[in-house]
Amino acid sequence: MGNSNKKLQRTMTSRHITMMALGGAIGAGLFKGSSAAIDMAGPAVLIAYLLGGIILLFVMQGLAEMSVRNSEARTFSDLVQSILGKYPAYFLDWIYWKMWVLNIAAESVVAAIFIQYWLPQYPIWILALTVAIFVTAINLFSVKIFAETEFWLALIKISVIIVFIIAGLVLLLVTFGNHTAVGFSNLTDHGGFLPNGPTGLIAAMLVVIYSYGGTEIIGITLAETKNPEKAVPKAVRSTLVRIITFYLLPFFIIVSLIPWNEVNGVPESPFVMVFKMIGIPGADHIMNAVVILAIVSSMNSGLYGSSRVLYTQAMDGRIPKIFGYLSKRKVPVYAILMCTLAMFTGVIISLFAGEKTFEFLMGSLGYTVLFIWLIIAIAHVKSRKKQSEKTSAYAVKWFPYTTWIAIIALSAILIGIIFTTSIIVTGITLAIYIFITLMYLISGRFYVREAK
């Protein structure tokens, strides 16, 4: 990779990467995707998110173990290549890059829409441009400044979710003034706990996978994390507990307080609906601000992740070396700017695509997260054979059973969502994967990794 002054700096701690994973995963999927998931599965959405959380736990444990065993790895594609070979690593890199670029493109438009709630005199494209420039500027500063910014953005977002959980539980359990405790009848009324049957539950799993996607960004931070063999397992453990908590409890409160069939088809988020029930003055403005922070936080993590993929590709000789250039602050400037440019292209497309943009992108991104998790899990199963001679400070306790459960579950979900997802979404996603594969056949086979 060249001499030391050309390397990324290890300035991030487990505190930073934990919050980065939370920032990437608790975003539009929670605040905007919640309505779609509840509409598909009804109160059984709780089962969907619990299953998704367990699968995520098993996948991330495998990622943590591989990270500890290979301390020289810079991203999870480095981990995968040493185990599965060139093509899976190449495919993983580019679908991950595609995931984040599409995600930040969609979220910049969504953020602009929410900001326009306060500034209706400004057109969407100006507000989207402003948000994009702000997120780009944060990433162009030092990694430490980026990590601190992401830490505080995620902390604010999480704090509000905690307030939401406490207030929601009070509404459910306590009678006060003119309010009567709601109780839990909404969980079984209006068609039962599973009103749309197993099909609805399977369809919701795509939204669930999309929502949890972003947690694996921990695997992108390896080259910039202090003592990754200690920090990554610690971050995985704490992140998973928090993500499952911050998804399951809010959804439990939403489907308990509001009939599931009244959640979708209304302009505001279910979170705004609950805040209005609490009776907080200006609840819509409070939640509007929280959603904007959530989206900016997710975009921040997304631009970081996508730019590091380009940086790694450049250092490995797959794309022009300019994308491997580091500034004095040790950040890959041109890689970040390229991802920003791709984001602006996506923003333009999103503006013309209309109201279905988020739905289509969410479906395609759900597929991508699912394949990323599958590749990581398969690599983990084979990693013990490849590295059996190495001792490790961290090992998955019930290997290989937990990882095989994850692989089987993800394969079953993949089959299910193929039959329950729009053919347009599936077709576009398949076309992107075929294009990536063709690019590998054209250029990837000629790739020879540079000596480190």
UniProtKB/TrEMBL annotation:
<feature type="transmembrane region" description="Helical">
    <location>
        <begin position="125"/>
        <end position="147"/>
    </location>
</feature>
<feature type="transmembrane region" description="Helical">
    <location>
        <begin position="401"/>
        <end position="424"/>
    </location>
</feature>
<keyword id="KW-1133">Transmembrane helix</keyword>
<feature type="domain" description="Amino acid permease/ SLC12A">
    <location>
        <begin position="16"/>
        <end position="450"/>
    </location>
</feature>
<feature type="transmembrane region" description="Helical">
    <location>
        <begin position="331"/>
        <end position="354"/>
    </location>
</feature>
<feature type="transmembrane region" description="Helical">
    <location>
        <begin position="46"/>
        <end position="64"/>
    </location>
</feature>
<feature type="transmembrane region" description="Helical">
    <location>
        <begin position="154"/>
        <end position="177"/>
    </location>
</feature>
<dbReference type="InterPro" id="IPR004840">
    <property type="entry name" value="Amino_acid_permease_CS"/>
</dbReference>
<feature type="transmembrane region" description="Helical">
    <location>
        <begin position="286"/>
        <end position="311"/>
    </location>
</feature>
<feature type="transmembrane region" description="Helical">
    <location>
        <begin position="430"/>
        <end position="448"/>
    </location>
</feature>
<keyword id="KW-0813">Transport</keyword>
<feature type="transmembrane region" description="Helical">
    <location>
        <begin position="360"/>
        <end position="381"/>
    </location>
</feature>
<feature type="transmembrane region" description="Helical">
    <location>
        <begin position="100"/>
        <end position="119"/>
    </location>
</feature>
<keyword id="KW-0812">Transmembrane</keyword>
<feature type="transmembrane region" description="Helical">
    <location>
        <begin position="240"/>
        <end position="260"/>
    </location>
</feature>
<dbReference type="Pfam" id="PF00324">
    <property type="entry name" value="AA_permease"/>
</dbReference>
<keyword id="KW-0472">Membrane</keyword>
<feature type="transmembrane region" description="Helical">
    <location>
        <begin position="197"/>
        <end position="219"/>
    </location>
</feature>
<keyword id="KW-0029">Amino-acid transport</keyword>
<dbReference type="InterPro" id="IPR004841">
    <property type="entry name" value="AA-permease/SLC12A_dom"/>
</dbReference>
<protein>
    <submittedName>
        <fullName>Amino acid permease</fullName>
    </submittedName>
</protein>
